[in-house]
Amino acid sequence: MLLNLLDCRRLLLQGASLGVVAIAALAPIAASAQDAAAPSVAAEDADQADDRPSAAEIIVTGSRINTSGFTAPTPTTVIGSEQIAANAQPNIFTTISQLPSLQGSSGTQVNTFSTSSGAQGLSSFSLRGVGTIRTLTLLDGQRVVGANVTGVPDISLFPQLLTQRVDVVNGGASASYGSDAVGGVVNFVTDTRFKGIKGNIQGGITNYGDDEQAVAQLAFGTAFADDRLRVIGNVEYSHEGGVGGGEWGIGLANGRDWFKQTTLINRGVLNDGSPQFLVRDFAQSTTFTKYGLITAGPLQGIAFDAAGNPFQFQYGSNGVPAKDAAGNISGCFPGFCLGGDLTGNVDAGRSLKSRIDRYNGYGRIGFEFTPGSEVYATFNYGRVKTQNQPVNGQNRPGLTIQCSNPFLPGSIAAACANAGITSFRFGTSNASLGNTQVHTDREQVRAVIGAKGAAEIGGTEWTYDTYYEHGVNRTRIDVDNILLSNRFNNAIDAVLENGVIVCRNPVARANGCVPLSIFGDKASEAARNYIMPEAGPYQRTRQTQDVASINFSGSPVELWAGPLSVAFGGEWRREHYRVTADPYGAGFANTPAGGDYPADPLLIQGGNNWYAGNYKNGNGTYTVKEAYLEVDVPILNSDSTGKLNINAAGRVTDYSTSGTVWAWKVGGTWDLPVDGLRVRGVMSRDVRAPNLSELFAAPVTTTLPNFFDPFTNSNVLAIQNTIGNTALTPEFARNNTAGIALANPSWLPGLNVSFDWYQIKIKDVISSLGANDIVQLCFQKVLLSTCSAFNLSNTNGPNFINVQAFNLASINTSGFDIEASYRWQQPLGLPGSFTFRGLATHVIKFITDTGLPGTLPVDTAGNNNGATPDWKFLLIQSYENDKFSLLVQERWFSDGVIGHQYVVCSAGTCPTSTSQRPTIDKNFLPGAFYLDIGGSVNITKEIVAYAKVDNVFDTAPARTNIFSNPALYDGLGRIYRAGVRFRF
Known about the structure:
Layout: H1 2-9, H2 18-21, E1 31-32, H3 55-58, E2 76-80, H4 81-87, H5 92-97, E3 135-139, E4 163-169, H6 174-177, E5 184-190, E6 196-206, E7 213-224, E8 229-240, E9 263-266, E10 277-280, E11 283-285, E12 293-294, E13 302-304, E14 310-312, E15 320-321, E16 329-330, E17 336-338, E18 355-370, E19 373-388, E20 396-402, H7 410-419, E21 423-428, E22 437-457, E23 460-480, H8 485-491, E24 494-497, E25 500-503, H9 506-510, H10 525-531, E26 538-559, E27 562-581, H11 583-586, E28 618-638, E29 642-655, E30 659-671, E31 677-688, H12 692-696, E32 700-709, E33 714-722, E34 731-743, E35 751-768, H13 771-779, E36 790-791, E37 799-803, E38 805-825, E39 833-849, E40 858-859, E41 871-880, E42 884-893, E43 903-904, E44 919-920, E45 928-938, E46 943-950, E47 975-983
């Protein structure tokens, strides 16, 4: 069906030129930098055309060779400023992440359920689904300091209005650009020669009256001294209100009705002929309610309302509590009933999108000291503030409440006496304590000085590019309204002494304990302040990056089929981070003298006191030295054989933590003696070095009181230290691509079509192991490197297990891209042009192998719980003339599954369910289709008014067991945007 649709509309895109990048306001969303068609310049840019760099200066194609006429073998998609403007997004990140080859990118709709990850509101790209840490993102071909300890940058901190284009290299490029370019490279190119003033004012809102958006951008550029001294600047402010938590139960924010509390229920029965796992809507837990539920024993099924009054809870599924010690409920599934009283469910409280406020200032000054050569300096200041609500309440099932608790209604105390019990099991969502809020503030300062240009040496013109960059990123995470677990446990254990309700524990009383009622919405302000101090969890991270780089490119030798092109250079880089956290989470031994944190013997001195958000202290540094050489050798060049070039590169890199590694690539392009037809291919060995977090993770310590020691066949007391691993080595990947392209043939000018197959195999993938895995792998002599990570027979101190990451797993993925475009000038005699565009990516397989014994590799291609659907496409049709423009855009991904490991069966037909091949009754997740429509009107030559509607049909996301998958599905609904752009 997909292929018929694509063939019918002829909307597959590849191979347009740099010239196509510069066409009018609704120009192509993407074009291939290496397949040049006839140049075209937008009318509004015609006066500036002479100021723009040449194609040889600005094309990025996964190669460092920078000479006229060079064609690289790696497929590259280019998105111009006109396409970015036409998409009318408040953040350029959203426009780029819509490309089908980008799978699993983060953003403001991802990580909203998190308290402790530190990635809330972080906008970073992932190519080919291999993760943000394996995609190298550059600004003007230069590295950018990470906005997270994983090393990934935050695109929201980039200057956006002056972005001339974005180049997306769909393939490994480590040999040319260095570590992390396993999935590919995303390079933001700024307009360094802009002259004039331009701006953009935009507003937006969803169909549900939320996520209010406001954007204000202004850029300027001027030149002095006969255009030799150029100054440009850019200031921006953007606000997106986000979509916060909804009501308790299943009511999402502002009336969204697609959430059905869909849950993957584990029956826990493996061999009765029925599926082990069931997918069901309107599931509600049997272990807690909004204001409290007795979950076992003779009083099981008694719940409490907001006023603290008891009532009989409606379980759903016609469930009847067994009132036994195990808390069984007849008619229900283990842990869940269907329907009934859903008001205690907490998932609807998760933010659908983080609120974000983005501030950015950018400046550049360049002086052309000789024609074509300049020295320059740039400065960028960015700040991004986000906020999200991870969930409703602070759920605490499995509590034990004494029948003597004075907050307990008298009728329940009497029922305890009649039943002959002194305590009962209890669970609550803690609605009376309110909802946790996570505030993240990222601030970045980045400065670059450099020189680039051309010089003739020995009769050969060489281009050069050298720069030094220093970047600092500060991240502040603050969590509000969250409880300290031990204080909560003591506050709810209340007794009556001398007519006064107090905490039972005398040590707790001596240290300020205030008793807390958890029956209903009756928590006192004093109790809330005791268990949730105003100084909540926090983390302060400072990351620095220093880079010195020099690159040369030229064609020193003329060979039989053309010039031999060469690029070479080197780079030095230093990465450092330091993180500090509050002592409740990190441990009181790290509290500065005279701090504001009172001593409390009930708190864990080593940290981990918060319900969530237990951040830790840490620091680390590593340096990188590398050099590379790249050559492009012409092999054939004639009318009868066509033009064949071989491109090869090698890079040697020395990491201070893991030693020396090599990356390389070999590829070629062959322009066949057929009008516009080209074949291309490349093989490469790419690397990703372990990042700061993996090497130097801030330690987390927990106690394992009954850890099984296989060496002595006994249980021991052990301390688990979750730490970084400085012995990690780089990941290695083999990238292969092969494709064919038809570019601008004379028989149909403006047509560009291509097909590119890819395969990525990554070994030594860095992955974390649990304490038991670490010990067992050593005991079984499967992975001897884990033997140094623990000591369970320590006579000089406590036994310990260092839980850390190892180079153990592997990833194997393959697929293909189909891209095409066609531009029809004066369609049917109408003025202007009509453009068809399309991009599609098909993931054939995405296999991850943990490397652990007893496990099977898992294929997640087509798993719509993840980031790699079978098919994903982006289609665009646009019409523009000198008065107005229209845009229609379709985004789609295919139906998929919950997981390929499942065996689908029905009652009476199921085989025995195993951990490797569990049985399930439904294994389907639908795809989604989104229609976007926009347009603009030229009020004057300088002023353009525009409007756009995204998700016109208000398409709801799939109801998955993980709430929704915001990396794929749109959970916001229809969005309206309108604004005005101007340029003088």
